[in-house]
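Team,

Forwarding the record for the chain on the shared tracking sheet. I've put the sequence and predicted structure together so nobody has to dig through attachments.
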Amino acid sequence: TAWPALDRLLAPQLAECAPPGPDRMRLAVFAPGCLRALPWASLAPPGCVGVWQVPALGWWPSRPDPAGLACWLEPADAPASTRLGEAVIAGLRAASPPRLVIGGVADPGREIPEVQQVERAADLGLQRLRFYGHGLPVGATDAVAGLQLAGDRAFIDRNLAGTRFAVGAEVELWAANPSFGDGARAVLDLGDRLPGLAHSMLGAGAAAVLDLAWPVHDFVKAMVCEHFGLLRNTRAIDGAVALRSATRWCAALVSQLQGRRHTFTDAQAFLAFVDGKRRQTARELGGEPDLIVPLPPAALSGEVDAWLAEVASPSHLAAFRWWGRCDLGPVGQVAGT
């Protein structure tokens, strides 16, 4: 009996929020605790596409092995190349072929066909969406913070208006999409806030989102992404725990590289050592080491020492974040990794 009363109280305010004209509003309700059967549809005012419950951010049991992967790669050249990431994504796609490959538009023009492809991934019930690329430069607000696409196009909050992810879906944004809101929150102490596209993805029904707080070196991003992907492909493991394990593995790799930096005569020797470690790790995790794609030498420019000094900055690994569900809490650990 409380729902009709709540409906009467909220309906006028929700109706005022509805956009004018043919556009319709998507309303997401962030509810505390676990998912429960509640009559959210009764809250839908005129002009609203629908009302969906989105799990609150917290710790509760989750399905550790989401089924079905959509993989989206947006290559980029200098000054922020994704050549290392492209090699990693090629290997991950070979080891575990995605059900849907997004992107690859030869002549995008002014359209954003990726929007329809993301909607299709959601309609198919795919429960993992992996994006690898770059975010836009810092946006004025979270609404215009997003992903950089080919042809100087952008994927931002409004592009998710028609997307509704399946229950339990997870989104991996291997890109930073900051906004000036990040700085305002730090300076003005504005309280809790879901930044950038993380808020948008959760609002579209995702149960968890992986993203980066700020841009990081492509080597670090590629290594963390690969180890994360190998863990998800070979083990039943929660995404938050896999991310924690992947960042630790990358930190150990960088430490080894620093300790051996004087033995690398050139970039070829450096990359040969890294590729050897990547194949060894794939074998230890039960994967196929032969499917690991070697890192391209052209991606490593300049002196190895200078390049490694940049890669070793602790700010890179500090950027990775996990928003949403995790069944083991913040101290989850994977045995043997």
